[in-house]
Fold:
Amino acid sequence: MTPEEEKEFLRRRKSRNAVFGLVLLAMVVLFYAITIVRIGQQ
Amino acid sequence: MRATTAKDVDQVALAVSPAAVPVAMPADWRDFFALTKPKVMRLVVYTALCGLLAAPGNIHPVLGFTAILCIALAAGGAGALNMWWEADIDAKMKRTSARPLPQGKLRREDARDFGLAMSGFSVMVMGLAIHWLAAAFLAFSVFFYVVIYTMWLKPRTPQNIVIGGAAGAFPPLIGWIAVTGEVTWMPVLLFAIIFMWTPPHFWALALWVKPDYAAANIPMMPNAAGEVSTRRQSLVYSALLLPLSVTPWLIGETGAIYGISALILSGIFLALTVPIGLRRSVEGDGMKPEKKLFAYSILYLFVLFGALVLDRVLAQWGVIA
Structure:
């Protein structure tokens, strides 16, 4: 792997991990909100 | 046998050196996003939201948002599974050749796994958080789009988009069920309107990208039954769409805001389809009427469903009867 390719490899992996992390965080917030709403409705 | 030279040794060394081996780059997140067919998803989300807002009763905003998110994720998952299955076909068509799989930006099995994960996750969340009936319809809509339409009908029959169009008609029905928990006539009518809208909408596109479908060996109506037949059938579906779109008003499910809007919008739709139904294209005519109908058909659905929501919301607030 050339230095340029390695740089691109790391950039893509980093951006994918960041997006994946944000999606997971959003899911945690959403599930928390759903739980609160469902409990409130009972 | 020729003796091995120093030059040969250098070439072998170059061939196996790490720099010469093609590097498998990880896919960019944008490539995964492109798998979800974002443009198609806009219409799916919008019609689902309209179904949800027009339904009688109330849903908590968090649960309403979750329902729409599940429908969007399921549509995205179905889109990814469609691209996984049709990667070879997409590579042959100009319109689809820039998608991530034909471009080699993603591994095919990654697209499949991504699609399965998104679809499965969305159905589970819909069932657990909203309603299992809505989840069942959501699961069936993904199955219908991927298995019935993409795998079975599309490569076999020119009626593919007619029957397969049902897949795109599910979102308002599911949005409605997410609120009410039951299937009644009104959401079925919304389903029927999109079902009837799909053939003239899609055939307008298929008429001008006919060579693409021929290259990919897909029996779309213009390729299989010919242009004349496709144009006449588009006219029939547009003519049927007019009375169908005003039916919710005629049976008293909506007020005049929706009814008059439907009458005008469907009247324009029919008026734009008439020249398409009667004309025959000639080489290099630009297919302007077909392109115009395609653009209008998207606007039609946006405005029609917007009028439905406005009508129902004003009625719920007591502004109109």
